[in-house]
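Render Flavodoxin-like fold domain-containing protein in 3D.
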Amino acid sequence: MKTVIIFDHPYTSNASENVPHQRSFLAAVYKQVQTQLTAEHGEVDLIDLHADHFDPVMSAQDLANWRRGVPINDQIADYQARLLDADQIILMFPIWWEVMPAMTKGFLDKVYSKGCLYEAGSMQTKLVKQPQIKVITTMSTPSWLYRWVFGAPLLKALFRGTFLKTRLFHFKWYGFSQVEKKSLAQRQEMIRKFKV
């Protein structure tokens, strides 16, 4: 099974070690997921948005290409080809102000585009393998507050507003909440036990 992981964190996927101001719990989770999937004889294809210097901003020329249903640039065309070949797609990012960061939003805007990865009129996905979509997030907001007070806006935007709309039905969200309040030993145990 081929898994494409879209990783969005300013410190990149290499920040899994416990180095102050250069560490990311999300990167440590990525390392665990990559190890798990490789052990299961899966192929892991990493798209590390910050390491790739991905530009999330949609320019006027980008939008003109998007409207014509052609890839915006070579990097986008490469990402699209990799997604078309995926059996599983995993998005990994921190939740900031209750939604995804700019890199992830820009990735969806520019890469998951009409004419390239879904049909413009019917909204039918072109991802013919019907990949499993998994989302792994970290956030400071308590889980109960995020779901019951804020209404889980990420689920509305990603599951209902993007994937369900384009008929990608296999969606699962794994959320890590308030990790910064855990001890190092507790964080390490959470990562050790985590499986996608």
